[in-house]
Amino acid sequence: MFTKAGLDAHVQSIPNGAAITAAVVGGSIEVGFSNILSLATAHEKGIPITLIAPAGLYLSKAADLGTDGAQGLAGSRRARAHGKTIAVNGLKNITQLAVQAWMDKNGGDSKTVNFTEMPFTDMPIALSSHRVDAALLAEPSVTEAKTSARIIGQPYDAISPDF
């Protein structure tokens, strides 16, 4: 696609929006696909950010998020999450904030869980090896994790069913 448009692009994977935003601001990369929370945080701190185009869409009816391992959280008993470890792709990012809001709206207490940061691609093995009790995943990692885990909720719904 880039070559056809006459661009010499090099695509690299960076684990989360905060790291992507920092890479763009620091000049390590020229363009990045980030999330609005990371961009708003940079803007709030006076860091100049230029949005080229919106690129993300969340639709509750098409969501597949919030997976836990067999030893993890019970889907209808989020209050039992005390002391559990939940993987997100960025600490203090939209993934963690969505899980916290979802837990608090569904009878849990997000202040009692531990969050750990890891790339989406590492989460299925972390779930199956019980290094984490739950994870907020994105495709294609959701499909991979379904062999050893189950969907317990849609955390982004706590923000809004569509955004």
Question: Notable features of this structure?
Answer:
alpha/beta, 163 residues, 5 helices, 10% strand
3D architecture notes:
This protein has 163 residues and is of the alpha/beta class. It has five helices and five strands. A five-stranded mixed sheet has the order 3-2-4-1-5. It has helices at residues 17-26, 36-44, 94-105, 123-128, 141-145, and strands at residues 67-69, 85-88, 114-117, 134-135, 149-151. Residues 69-79 have low confidence and may be disordered. It is globular and about 50 Å long.
Q: What topology does this entry show?
A:
Layout: H1 17-26, H2 36-44, E1 67-69, E2 85-88, H3 94-105, E3 114-117, H4 123-128, E4 134-135, H5 141-145, E5 149-151
Parallel strand pairs: 2-3, 2-4
Antiparallel strand pairs: 1-4, 1-5
